[in-house]
Amino acid sequence: MPMPDHVDIAIIGGGIAGTSLAAALAPHRSVALLERESAWGYHATGRSAAEFTRRFHSEIVGRLTTASHAFMSGPPEGFSATALLHRRGNLLIASHEKREQLDAITEAELRNAPPGATPVEPQTVEQALARVPFLNPDWLAGALFDADCWDIEVESLLQGYRKQAKAAGAHTLLNWTLDAASHRDSGWTLNSADQAITADVVVNAAGAWADDVARLCGVSPLQLIPHRRTAINLPVEGFDVSEMPEVNEIEEDFYFKPDAGQLFVSPADETPVDPHDAWPEELDIAIAADHIDQCTTLEITRVAHSWAGLRTFAPDRLPVVGYDSERPNFFWYAGQGGYGIQTAPALSRLGAALAMQQPLDDDLTALAITAEMFSPARFAR
User: Residue 5's pLDDT band (boundaries 50, 70, 90)?
Assistant: First the structure.
């Protein structure tokens, strides 16, 4: 289906944010989803830890996660050929120096479980070793097990949303770079090297490039800062890691989980950077490997693979969703940080309602989710 010259809504950015929003909007508006790369979800979406967890994030992100759980657990018929979630579990570990932090976090999580969540389980060293036998018993002081942690089939989620969007009439285009934008009372003209598209509304779902897109559109940026996060894959000799839980250091200094027979390891770095096709720094690779050397008995012989992705945060680390106060038909949909994939079901419904200037769904308001929480108007400019 050829791309039309005019659409109601043009969405810039084909990661999980833009694609899920396109799926929510396309049944009600004509939509163009525009991605400058040659593949959907090339940057942050394709380089995530693929984790869905009910705990250990801010309260408001927790509400979005709760509102996303039903969709993730039981997506609509035909959305995906495979389940979107596979239970993994999360073992939070603490060294002797952090025993007090472990006790405090355990007490807080037992007292404040999310609605419907499984209670966490304090773990002795022996119980933790039964779950992950190669943990170093000399390093380990104790642990906490959270059953409510799942692996996400990220590609299935992304393609399911893309399929939904296209079935509802959305037009999708790869290799489309925004070179210039102009605005008149009648709407926007978006120019690339090969094609100009006009739209009533522009949605900025450009992730790490969101402030750059705003500038191209003559809109003041919001200080959305990309942060590099590094990951490595380590071969594991002598252990079948396929059924082990994810393992997080109690204050998330690092984490690791199974990945195709190896260990996916991250030093949980958050280094502010300019938007770019991210790559890992040698120091961060070494830090990740050193964490595994300290907390396990594994012998690290080589790093099989290393990479990095960008997690983009607003100053208050909450998503930015809503029309710009200076340019009313410029819609922000960015700043999802490390939670864009797991909150996509709820956030896309919220974004679609706000873009169409309709009330939020009842389940969102029942969780005290409001438009004001995410409005770009909360930032002084």
Answer: confident
Residue range(s) defining the domain that contains residue 196 = 6-50+154-223+316-378
Given a contact cutoff of 8 angstroms between Cβ atoms, the answer to whether 80 and 152 are in contact is no
Nearest to 346, CA basis, from 57, 64, 29: 64
CA-wise closest residue to 37 among 19, 56, 55, 64: 19
**Pairwise CA distance, residues 290 & 44, whole Å:** 25
Beta bridge partners of 90: 146, 246
Please give the pLDDT value at position 194.
80
> Quick one: which H or E segment has residue 255?
strand 255-259
This prediction's pTM: 0.96
Phi, psi of 50 (to 5 degrees): 55, 50
% of residues, the chain, pLDDT over 90: 92
What CATH number did the domain enclosing 139 receive? Answer: 3.30.9.10
What does DSSP say about strands 85-87 and 121-123: parallel, antiparallel, or unpaired?
unpaired
Tell me: do 11 and 128 sit in the same domain: no
Is pLDDT at 195 greater than 90 in this prediction? no
Q: Which residues contact 33 (CB under 8 A, 6 or more apart)?
A: 11, 14, 18, 19, 22, 162, 165, 170, 171, 172, 173
Query: How sure is the predictor about 231, in pLDDT bands with cuts at 50, 70 and 90?
Result: very high
Indicate whether 231 and 374 sit together in one domain: no
SS3 content of the chain, % helix, strand, coil (to 5): 30, 30, 40
DSSP 272-326: E--SSS----HHHHHHHHHHHHHHB--------EEEEEEEEE-TTSS-EEEE-SS
CA dist list (Å): 134 to 64, 241, 287, 296, 371: 35, 10, 19, 5, 46
